[in-house]
Design goal:
102 residues; alpha+beta; 3 helices
């Protein structure tokens, strides 16, 4: 399993989450509202309210999920951080694999 972290504008979070699940590249996407991101962009320090997406995907589907996320994400440079999962409940991992199977 992998968990992808991706921040996005609040008004785009649900559409991104739905697209990933509908296209069967993510088993589940949890939307966490209220993140405040501080970063440098085009020479200036920016501060924005964002939603954080926790995207759960089987390891074998990671590349395809990243491809689709990059396609549907509105940012020029989207945050896409894939983290390994040291342990997953076996039944959850099986379910996740079924959700992204063709």
């Amino acid at each position: 399993m992998r968990v992808i972290l991706s921040s996005c504008p609040p008004d785009k979070a649900e559409a991104i989450a739905t697209a990933l699940v509908e296209r069967r590249v993510a088993a589940c996407v949890s939307v966490l509202p209220g993140a405040i991101s501080t970063y440098r962009w085009q020479g200036a320090v920016q501060r924005d309210t964002e939603h954080l997406l926790l995207i759960k995907v089987p390891a074998e589907g990671l590349a395809r999920c990243i491809e689709v996320l990059s396609e549907v994400h509105p940012y020029e440079v989207p945050e896409i951080l894939a983290l390994p999962v040291d342990h997953a409940n076996a039944s959850y991992a099986d379910w996740a694999r079924q959700m992204v199977a063709d």
